[in-house]
Amino acid sequence: MIAKLKQLLASERQAISPQEKAKHLNLAAVSLLLEVVYADETLSDEELHLLPSLLTTTLSLAPGEVDELIATAQANHKDATSLYEFTTEINQQFSLAEKQQLILAMWKLAYADGHLCRYEDQIVRRTADLLHLKHSELIQMRNAAINQLP
Questions:
Q1: Calpha distance 53→60 (Å, rounded)
Q2: Rounded distance, CA 106 to CA 88, Å?
Q3: Which parts of the sequence belong to the Co-chaperone DjlA N-terminal domain (predicted)?
Q4: Which pairs with CB-CB distance under 8 Å and at least 24 residues apart come from 52-59?
Q5: pTM of whole model > 0.70?
Q6: Digitized pLDDT (tens) for each residue of the chain, 150 residues in all
Q7: How many of the other CB atoms lie within 10 Å of CB of 15?
């Protein structure tokens, strides 16, 4: 996955459309969310059902786009070696509020199955660090996710 993202980012330096740029950026965000889903090595039904709705609200995507991005990210998941490749692009393009919303979505996925696995916690914390968010912002997003639990 990293190789494909590097290729996509390299092609971005060439003339690509704004739609393709947005797709690459969304793919990076979806990939980070999938890292949380796969962190505990179990794919729960709650996570599977929550992921598409989080993408439509967090990234303002249409359902058809969501399905395509999830399929692409899942197909490339095994090649992922670093969160840095995803967060670099996001740092360049996302506002602070968008980064916070992404972390909130990651926390929601982490808590979707009713408990927080230490690996899920680590992924979210490392991502927040790579996105240059303050610890207080990370905790604020975690508390918001907990408060929104059913």
A1: 10
A2: 17
A3: 27-143
A4: 54/105, 54/108, 54/109, 55/30, 55/105, 57/105, 58/29, 58/101, 58/102, 58/104, 58/105, 59/26, 59/29, 59/30
A5: yes
A6: 556 656 655 655 555 677 777 888 889 999 999 999 888 877 777 888 888 988 888 888 888 888 888 888 888 777 777 888 889 989 999 999 999 999 999 999 999 988 899 999 999 999 999 999 999 999 999 999 999 887
A7: 7
Domains of the chain are 2-147 (1.10.3680.10)
Element (H, E) at 68: helix 63-76
